[in-house]
Amino acid sequence: MTGRQGHQRRYYLSDIPLEEARDRFHTALRQAGALEPRTAENVPLAQARGRVTAGPVWAVASSPHYDAAAMDGIAVRAADTTGATETAPVSLTVGGTAIGTAIGTVSDAETSNAAAGGGEPQAVWVNTGDPMPAGLDAVIMIENLHQVGDDHVSIMAPVAPWQHVRPLGEDIVATELVLPENHRLAAADLGACAAAGLSRVPVRRRPRVTIIPTGNELVPVGSELKPGDIIEFNSLMLSGLLEEWGAAPSVTPPVPDVFTAIRDAAIAALDSSDLVVINAGSSAGSEDYTALVVEELGQLLVHGVAIRPGHPVVLGVARDKPLVGIPGYPVSAMLTAELLLKPLIEQWLGQAGSSRRPVVHANITRKVVSPTGEDEFLRVKLGRVGEKMVATPVQRGAGVIMSLVRADGMVRIPRFSEGLDAGSDVDVELLRPLSEVENTVVAIGSHDLTLDLMSSFLRRLPAGLSPPSVNLSSSHVGSLGGLIALRRGEAHLAGSHLLDEDTGEYNVSYIRRYLGDVPVALVNLVGRVQGLIVRPGNPMGIAALSDLLRRDISFVNRQRGSGTRVLLDYKLKELGASPQELRGYEREEYSHLAVAAAVNGGSADVGLGILSAARALGLDFIPLLNEQYDLVIPLVHYESDLLRPLLDLLANPEFRKAVNDLGGYDTTNMGRLQEKIG
Amino acid sequence: MTGRQGHQRRYYLSDIPLEEARDRFHTALRQAGALEPRTAENVPLAQARGRVTAGPVWAVASSPHYDAAAMDGIAVRAADTTGATETAPVSLTVGGTAIGTAIGTVSDAETSNAAAGGGEPQAVWVNTGDPMPAGLDAVIMIENLHQVGDDHVSIMAPVAPWQHVRPLGEDIVATELVLPENHRLAAADLGACAAAGLSRVPVRRRPRVTIIPTGNELVPVGSELKPGDIIEFNSLMLSGLLEEWGAAPSVTPPVPDVFTAIRDAAIAALDSSDLVVINAGSSAGSEDYTALVVEELGQLLVHGVAIRPGHPVVLGVARDKPLVGIPGYPVSAMLTAELLLKPLIEQWLGQAGSSRRPVVHANITRKVVSPTGEDEFLRVKLGRVGEKMVATPVQRGAGVIMSLVRADGMVRIPRFSEGLDAGSDVDVELLRPLSEVENTVVAIGSHDLTLDLMSSFLRRLPAGLSPPSVNLSSSHVGSLGGLIALRRGEAHLAGSHLLDEDTGEYNVSYIRRYLGDVPVALVNLVGRVQGLIVRPGNPMGIAALSDLLRRDISFVNRQRGSGTRVLLDYKLKELGASPQELRGYEREEYSHLAVAAAVNGGSADVGLGILSAARALGLDFIPLLNEQYDLVIPLVHYESDLLRPLLDLLANPEFRKAVNDLGGYDTTNMGRLQEKIG
Predict the structure, then answer these.
(1) Which among B99, B163, B95 has a CA at the least distance from the CA of B127?
(2) Of A49, A56, A188, which is closest to B401 when you measure between CB atoms?
(3) Which ipTM did the prediction report?
(4) Peptide bond before A309: cis, by omega within 30 degrees of 0?
(5) Which residue, A164, A234, B370, B637, is most buried by CB atoms nearer than 10 A?
(6) What is the predicted pLDDT for the residue at A517?
(7) For residue B45, what is the nearest residue in chain A, using CA coordinates?
């Protein structure tokens, strides 16, 4: 071994199963005394919401703290009312002084008409909440007083003792348990503490977590970018999660990939933290120093966990505190934080295991191959299609942060398994409330930029207290994939632009072939222009599809099953050319924008796609033909309430204008029911 | 009508159904233009978590923003690897300069060993994340390199173009939709925005809500209390809720019950708020000015809503803004805020209807009589007992703030209904996560202070990453009520201390009589001392039970079916006395502490109860007898995992010590299985 490789292979990752890794980690932390719940701090009630009680909370006062009138009316001695009936009302002398004295209100002077002179009155005017005058034990509501004079009232029914009186301690008795230990404080709990005479409450100190971003290539959020720059946003996401879990995160400035610099940053952080997280450098490359730092400062317990994404994880204990390295890819960072850091925070807050997510059963829409030996955590989109809950995997790359944005749930594929068959039952941990999932329109099929616009418009509510807005979840698997998803009952609708070479008609023959007896409505979304996407100024001088056969031209293709790929193959056949003649035919992208991005980045000279994608990135465009892009919607969904807002949107002039502004779209037939098939 | 009553009846509440009230309110607000989502403010990503996007968020950069190596290894031209096999490896010249130039790392100088001279190398060393050198289109992982020299490597398999390369825009393409409008930002969303080149994000301004507490009797949280004082904690709870919903609440100093003062406070608040809430004074009493203020400043839309608790509600529009009065009882205040204010906040944040709570089906354990004409919102405790989800109503008083603390869910009893039969099916809106409910031990039966201690100890976890802690939900319905709940399958256990007059034995004969063929374990919890609770110094000179028959003594009783009531009746019978001879026999309290509180407050001279309750409030105690307090546990639960932590706790020395410290308890037999019955 020489040179660079010598450095790169200093460490070997030895992936161990998640449960074993956790176990090693927790055992060592327990031995170091680092798993105890955090100590108490007394915070004012107004700052305590969301915090966790550090001990039982006992009442220091009763509530009410005196016997209180529970109604507006008169306080009486129940014994004085015995025998009152409609035919023989009982008259009581009434006064008001007792209230004025007891509660000293501003307005009593004007409103109270105490019985003048003549000894103690039998009854006393009271408002709700007033203390019961001494010797009186019941309240009669003002509505039940028969005749009212300046100094007497009459009643027509007897009352029982303690009627309409809130006895002292009805709600809380001093010394009573108000809240148990390790209870997360909700708004009502704060009221109960206040009612129980408290102004502060002992809560667990927030665990302090220091995140140390490392890497020479890191630049701050919002920087001007040059190739190789990595925007340092992992700390932003990790801080967000940690705050959500109840910790107090702080982030150091980025540290370069230098062993001593990382070590010194870790030492400083250990002093002031309950947990130190070094982000990136946890693998075994030449610039991966985390494991070395942990080994130098303490005990390296785990280097590598058999999970996907996220396997290059470093777990250690240093100075009796957890010192952890998590991977740099954002999805890996988020997942390992959730699997390995969240349990610590929960434990420290006395909340171990309390935040398990709800689980739903679903059918997975696609075959998923997963390597044995690793637990895979698959992100999925969810939706209820008819009676069926369906889960569609999103992109699996550890660097695809949008997979976390798009995911509604997570499926764990155990390490003993080779994956999932299409249609198989899975348990899905919910990342969003079920109600949101139930309110989601599932679109699987061809990609078009108007679907993004549609998604955003559907989240915009008319002013008024509307039904919840609809979520549109669209997965881009190409037109054919969409029709297959519809047949399987996995989607509410599919975008499709499949040209029948023989008839020149769009979609109809494909629907008959692939959907068999599922009755569908075929609704036009847009007409759009397909053409060649090239760099500004068309530097390679591309004029027609035949130029794609030139040896100096590199092409970027769309995936099999996409309408655009069908179109390309059709056009090549017309030219009498074979796919192998195109340089780059085998390079597949999954959306028009991805094709445009490849051209824009220079790794391809040309791609076939729609005008709006070219225009979005400021590229040039050579139009080839107009095509029809439709929504294929099974009738049962077409007529459902769920899809109503989406279908209504197609008639919305604001939406049509926004689509036209994208360029290359014809919205003349938008929303028109082409035909019902099947 | 004269004097005080003239003031009190200025207004009449005309209760209208909830939906109609909301409708009037929202129609008027829509006309005033006050229902539009709030405007946007641009906040840095680090402050945006939990906020709601005020428009669609589009990417301004692609991610990755260049073609990037996805592995540590060498970048190659795929074409150069064609034909490589194990028997005929291909050798490639390799250099490292390209990396050094592109990413300028600190350590490259020492680790890169560029091929010296001799033209462009065929391959270039790359680390994960490095930009792909110009002209190269694939990466070979370092693990797959066969022979590595200073200036060449050899490989034994060809690679496809774009292998282990993350193409520009793989995750996000500039101009793509990152997040739709009205999306609540989670931690991962912030990362996606940063990856898309943004440093700030437009979010909806938090709706400003001003709460005006009114009332002469209000004192601040934590005050020394005198009779008639009301601790002003509604604003604390309401602020908590409003923050939770995403609003920015502020609270004015309390305003006295003076029309002009309240009016002026409302005028000032309307200027600076989206919503003004006057708390209390919303009814129709002499000091209830809210409706008058609304009428003076704008339009009074609703005065009185047919809901329970919470009917005295004032809804109005003033200066094109909602001006609302909500009731003073804390439970009413919280409920009306939820029903009437939350929809406004959600609407303003573009989240209308998005926070519907999950609903579970349950069996109600008790008959509930509810007045027709009002929608009642009943708070219940929940638990899963065997296969059955059971819902036990908690106290219904609008002033009982602990009912909100204890409740796990809410049942709506429609205004057309007269209530619920015991055992009937109800839909329960969950106030806590279902996982917490599933993890709850349901105790229904006699009250003892050790149950409170038990609840708190069960929330305390051993250090270690434990299973979630167990919640103990105990409802106090007396010993007999507990046995009946067990028979109906509505509880996991019942506390019981029922003395058989004939045998002198506790519980056994009652279990045989009431539980029939349900096999149970009878486990001792404590021995305890019952006696007479009197004020300090025993001012009435009470010495024995027979003193309770004195005419100068007032007694406070426990409810029918409680073991203590059974004991009293038994003792009275021994004395040859009839219950009617006791002054206060008909005054029933539901716990030992409530009895002690009545004595402490002076409204009764004496009660029968346990030593710990007397001691808790510093009262004197005249011991009468030792009794046995057991837990009755159906065998099926006795042997379940759910109850294991509770049964283990009975052997915990720390717990026993805490019980002994309460006073009057004998823990010798704690946890001992007395016998199995049935």
Answers:
(1) B99
(2) A188
(3) 0.91
(4) yes
(5) A234
(6) 83
(7) A236
